[in-house]
Amino acid sequence: MLLVVAAIIRGPDGRILLSQRPAHKHKGGCWEFPGGKVEAGEALDTALARELEEELGLRVRACQPFMTIEHHYPELSVRLCFREVTAFEGQPVGREGQPVQWFTPGELGALDFPEANQPVVKALALPDQWLILPTPLPADWREALPRSIAAGATLVYLRGVEEVSLLRELVQCCHAGGALALVADDPALATAVAADGVHLRQQQAMRLKQKPAQPWISMACHDQASLAHAVALGADMVLLSPVRETPTHPGQPGMGWPSFRALAEGLPLPVYALGGVTPAEVRQAREAGARGVAGIRGFWRSC
């Protein structure tokens, strides 16, 4: 399997730097995240710094894990390790004659990428933090929900709310703060309240043969079989749990980060870590193959 490291480079205005593959190479003409092959025995960050200096004239000062994806083309298999460059020096120039260009995140979906890059394009539209609504709904939710979203939890799972008018108000509150809102299990309800999609519990999702027609579909997963089903179904993202034992599920032991990594790393969709994790563990979760972290406590900002 070919080991490749690739960079997600954001400019000061939030645009993302891409380069175009030469016509004579595999997937020629496609846009891609800059990077290249990792040499035998070479550390990922070292390889990334070398590739970006050689290809673009950029000097990497800091980076962090983003996602790791394995993809199998008919002609070769690749393991792509994506790193998010958080500090760099220099102005990008295509030193090998390749076009380079900055794009807004909203423009990425219309571009032609190699298939292996597609999960990252989707993941870039998602945040590091995924908030699960506390149940029962706290009385101060009109103050606490906007505060939670402002703290970075711009993906919200609205569960345990049966009153349609209240659910619609919660969705509106999410949208006012710039957050995506998912409802539980019911695509028709999601449409009725103008939510952004549906989160499927594992038991329900395992019975489905076709992905529901919603902009975003997430799925709860607890094992390898459910993760494989999520990939086959075409889910946009998954919640993988439990990382640790939690007060809401006493007696259910957590899998721990090593087992989480064995399940999550390399999957072709964003994975969020759930179960006793906090917003402070985003980097650790990414090291284990996650896109981000999810939860209730630590994510809900009560008054």
From TrEMBL:
One Gene Ontology term of the molecular function aspect: metal ion binding
E.C. code: 3.6.1.55
Catalytic activity as recorded in UniProt: 8-oxo-GTP + H2O = 8-oxo-GMP + diphosphate + H(+); 8-oxo-dGTP + H2O = 8-oxo-dGMP + diphosphate + H(+)
Lineage top rank: taxon: Bacteria
Keywords: DNA damage, DNA repair, DNA replication, Hydrolase, Magnesium, Metal-binding, Mutator protein
Residues noted as binding 8-oxo-dGTP in the record, renumbered to the chain: 21, 26, 32-35, 117
Alphabetical list of Pfam families matching this protein: NUDIX_4, TMP-TENI
GO biological process, one term: thiamine biosynthetic process
Binding site for Mg(2+): 35, 55
Cofactor(s) listed: Mg(2+)
Domain Nudix hydrolase: 1-126
UniProt-listed InterPro entries: Aldolase_TIM, Mutator_MutT, MutT-like, MutY_C, Nudix_hydrolase, NUDIX_hydrolase-like_dom_sf, NUDIX_hydrolase_CS, NUDIX_hydrolase_dom
PANTHER family: 8-OXO-DGTP DIPHOSPHATASE, NUDIX HYDROLASE FAMILY PROTEIN
Family per record: Belongs to the Nudix hydrolase family.
Name of this protein: 8-oxo-dGTP diphosphatase
Organism of provenance: Isoalcanivorax pacificus W11-5
Source organism phylogeny: Bacteria, Pseudomonadati, Pseudomonadota, Gammaproteobacteria, Oceanospirillales
